[in-house]
Design brief:
heterodimer, A: 127 residues, mainly alpha, two-stranded antiparallel sheet, B: 500 residues, Sodium/glucose cotransporter, 22 helices
Chain lengths: 127, 500
């Protein structure tokens, strides 16, 4: 960035619709994934790890909240006996509030998981 | 107890509709492969309704309200757990499981690790979990019919057992998505409408107080529940991790066309379950006001059935009682059919295969169905009557201690070995089932040992996971050679598969 004088990086310019140019590279990497060559396995492992990280993040988030709720009730009697909009806190949290939170977490997870997969497909298509 | 014929007529109508659609549906579905039709044309919402319809059992429809009535706010962890179980399933299992192409849990075990012995062990555990889960459905039918007509408990259990046995043996209900989907909406209306009217009536009458003592306070151990903190965490662990290992839940994933659809369907299921679970606690809470004599008794599970008639007199009370009775039977029938199909399928494919006398596939499947439903029926006659939602949670605990490690480690950990998985199933299954057997025959227990037995998941699940990991690491030279191929199949997005 600091040296604007540097010559631009050279890029290959190809016609995008050349069947021959396409099949070799694209089908090649696809086959790498399916035939479990070293390259294919490495790429798929990276996808698997990304999905696992996402899953663990969601599960840990849920675990912290779920383990935390009883502990908060246990530690703070004032919370335990408080009220939200006419409902006791315990009833409000466990009977109503958790459900939108669960659905929200699920929705966010599906979005991110699909994005991870789209990025992977994109990577395979381009290489 | 109502002695009117309205609720009985409603029950008869639900039973008749199930039998008719179940048996006529076969004629329709036999022409083409029902699974292919389902996988191509079933929308995620319809499929999600069907999954919800199958999942919402006696425990959800009757059991939660009964527990809340007797033991208070801590019991709300049951519906929360039943819902979060689907979130965990979505996050850890849904898409890879669909991509594995497995129709049953034994299929998954064989696909992932290529061992016939592991397949057999899985089959036995599927059957045991299925029976354990069928037991409260039949008991629920017994207490429902008893509450409506005063008939002995075994009559209701027999009605459900016969109806389910006949429709499943005829081949119906196998993948009649529409029936299951309809039963979700029936159950939702049957619980939501009376709940809304009951709340309105409660306000109209000047909202009389229902919080008695510690009933509304979390972790108070109200109703004589000991060790509330341990129990809460153990219920949470069992339901969170057990859902993915329930036989009838897994089968439904096969009707999704691919892994991505499996995820989206599960998201819809979560929304549908979340809406449903807002209502059962209302019955438990209002039961403190209008039917306090049921609390803490073995009749607590009938609060959903009794409450509308108690609050509203006349035709409205009768109509609402009929509606909840219909919803309850929809719950027993849909869950029991789904479970019987799964258990019978595994019995006929993996357990009864060596006996030539049993004849061809169809005949063997019918014999398997009879066994699948007869065993829990006999158990329902003899077992100690625990609360419905608690018995169901025991099935969750066994599933969480067996199939949860198999699925989670199988999908995400390439170093899992056949011996590791088999050892986990045996150790987790034996310890959880031993606790369950003690509770159902000699329970209820007291003291800390009692809490450990009545809610075993908190120690059996870590035990099973630990066994799987340690044994797998000790047999690391025996990782199946097919593991990389299996991993590719589980995790490759469909876009690559399609244009391969």
């Amino acid at each position: 960035m600091s040296t604007p004088e540097r010559p631009a990086k050279r890029v290959t310019v190809v016609h995008p619709r050349t069947a021959a140019a396409r099949t070799t590279s694209r089908r090649g990497v696809r086959r790498d994934v399916h035939d479990q060559t070293e390259l294919g396995v490495t790429m798929l492992t990276s996808l698997r790890r990304a999905q696992l990280r996402l899953a663990v993040l969601v599960v840990l988030g849920v675990a912290v909240v779920v383990v935390g709720i009883p502990l908060v009730f246990l530690a703070f009697p004032s919370v335990r006996e408080g009220r939200v909009g006419g409902l006791a806190v315990g009833w409000f949290v466990l009977g109503v509030a958790v459900f939108p939170a669960i659905c929200g977490a699920a929705w966010a997870y599906v979005r991110h998981a699909e994005r991870n997969e789209a990025a992977f497909v994109d990577l395979v298509e381009r290489s | 107890m109502t002695s009117s014929w309205w609720p009985v007529a409603a029950v008869v109508a639900v039973v008749a509709a199930t039998v008719v659609i179940g048996t006529f549906g076969v004629r329709v579905s036999r022409t083409t492969s029902d699974f292919l039709v389902a996988s191509r044309s079933v929308s995620p919402l319809l499929n999600a309704s069907a999954i919800g319809g199958e999942y919402l059992s006696a425990a959800s429809f009757l059991g939660i309200a009964g527990l809340v009535l007797s033991y208070g706010v801590d019991m709300l962890w049951f519906p929360v757990g039943y819902t979060v179980g689907y979130l965990v399933l979505l996050v850890l299992v849904a898409a890879p499981l669909r991509r594995s192409g497995a129709y049953t849990l034994p299929d998954f075990a064989e696909m992932r690790l290529g061992s016939l012995r592991l397949r057999r062990v899985s089959s036995v555990i599927v059957v045991l979990i299925g029976w354990l889960y069928l037991l409260p459905q039949l008991q629920g039918a017994g207490i429902t019919l008893h509450a409506l007509t005063g008939a002995p408990q075994w009559v209701g259990a027999l009605v459900v057992a016969v109806v389910v046995g006949v429709t499943v043996a005829a081949g119906g209900m196998r993948s009649i998505t529409v029936v299951q989907a309809f039963q979700y909406w029936l159950k939702l209306v049957a619980i939501a409408l009376p709940a809304a009217l009951l709340v309105a009536a409660w306000f109209h009458r000047g909202s009389p107080a229902f919080a008695v003592g510690d009933w509304g306070t979390p972790l108070s151990g109200f109703g004589g529940r000991e060790y509330p903190l341990y129990s809460t965490y153990s219920i949470v662990l069992a339901t969170f991790l057990g859902t993915m290992g329930l036989p009838h839940v897994l089968v439904r994933f096969y009707t999704n066309p691919d892994g991505r659809a499996a995820r989206r369907t599960t998201l819809s299921v979560l929304v549908l379950l979340s809406v449903f679970y807002l209502f059962p606690p209302v019955f438990g809470a209002l039961g403190r006001v209008y039917t306090p004599e049921l609390a803490g008794t073995s009749a607590a599970d009938t609060v959903v059935l009794v409450l509308p008639g108690r609050v509203f007199g006349g035709w409205l009370g009768e109509a609402l009682s009929a509606l909840v009775a219909a919803g309850a039977f929809a719950a027993f029938l849909s869950t029991a059919s789904g479970l019987s199909v799964s258990v019978a399928g595994v019995l006929s494919q993996d357990v009864l295969t060596h006996d030539r006398r049993l004849g061809d596939g169809v005949r063997r499947f019918r014999i398997a169905t009879t066994i699948a439903i007869a065993v829990p029926f006999v158990l329902a006659l003899g077992a100690a009557r625990a609360d419905l939602a608690e018995t169901v949670t025991l099935a969750f605990a066994v599933a969480a201690s067996t199939f949860c490690p198999l699925l989670v480690l199988g999908i995400w950990w390439p170093r899992l070995t056949v011996r590791g998985a088999t050892a986990a199933l045996l150790v987790g299954g034996t310890s959880a089932l031993a606790a369950v057997a003690l509770v159902l025959t000699l329970g209820p227990f007291h003291g800390f040992v009692g809490a450990l037995l009545e809610q075993p998941a908190a120690w059996t699940v870590p035990l099973a996971f630990g066994t799987a990991v340690i044994v797998s690491l000790r047999t690391h030279d025996r990782v199946p050679r097919t593991t990389p191929a299996a991993m590719v199949r589980l995790h490759t997005p469909e876009e690559l598969e399609a244009s391969r």
